[in-house]
Amino acid sequence: MPSSANASLITLINPSAQASEDFKSLRTKLNYSYKSENMKSFLITSIKSQEGKSVLAANLAISYAQAGKRVLLIDANLRAPMLHKFFHMENHMGLSDLLSGKKHPGNVPITTYVDGLSLLPAGAETGLHATELLASNYLKLALDQFSTEYDMIFVDSSAANKTADSFLLAVHCDGVVLAVKKRTVKQEEVVTFKQNLDAIKGNLVGFVFIDFEK
């Protein structure tokens, strides 16, 4: 672990902190609730930006890696990628290169300094064409292959109230976890999100109420 590990990675820099214990508790709940259904891939999203979903995705992935699982963390927020910064990694190549057909899935994920955890950064080809890239047939093919190589896959996406990106991803993930920061999201916004997710047969497995800063 680098001496300047990102402060957002609480499960890594302070495993005994209460927040780290909370992530362990969430990990346990996911294990017991969905083990029989063999669910591996989870989309971590939020209704609005700045809700803490990237912090949630990264720490949950680390928590699973600390439990001995082979974990892949995917930054599918092609508009404002963040995860490579958490792990002090480059973003020259990643998901966008895979979705554009320029790279093979086996050549893209990068091993992090966390044992058992690999990161698939967003990649350099992002921005205006994000929705088109996420609608690519390569997305399902990649996730199917990753499911044979990793025990757990966590996908971080852009906020759902701005684009269709998270719904394009939800179709191909086993479950969706919605990060909701306290006092920022209205009940009717959550209801609308659930209705939109149901319309595409997405599987909302739960909410995580966030009470920490991004």
From TrEMBL:
<dbReference type="InterPro" id="IPR002586">
    <property type="entry name" value="CobQ/CobB/MinD/ParA_Nub-bd_dom"/>
</dbReference>
<keyword id="KW-0808">Transferase</keyword>
<keyword id="KW-0547">Nucleotide-binding</keyword>
<dbReference type="InterPro" id="IPR050445">
    <property type="entry name" value="Bact_polysacc_biosynth/exp"/>
</dbReference>
<dbReference type="GO" id="GO:0004715">
    <property type="term" value="F:non-membrane spanning protein tyrosine kinase activity"/>
</dbReference>
<dbReference type="InterPro" id="IPR027417">
    <property type="entry name" value="P-loop_NTPase"/>
</dbReference>
<protein>
    <submittedName>
        <fullName>Polysaccharide biosynthesis tyrosine autokinase</fullName>
        <ecNumber>2.7.10.2</ecNumber>
    </submittedName>
</protein>
<keyword id="KW-0067">ATP-binding</keyword>
<dbReference type="InterPro" id="IPR005702">
    <property type="entry name" value="Wzc-like_C"/>
</dbReference>
<keyword id="KW-0418">Kinase</keyword>
<dbReference type="Pfam" id="PF01656">
    <property type="entry name" value="CbiA"/>
</dbReference>
<dbReference type="GO" id="GO:0005886">
    <property type="term" value="C:plasma membrane"/>
</dbReference>
<dbReference type="GO" id="GO:0005524">
    <property type="term" value="F:ATP binding"/>
</dbReference>
<feature type="domain" description="CobQ/CobB/MinD/ParA nucleotide binding">
    <location>
        <begin position="43"/>
        <end position="90"/>
    </location>
</feature>
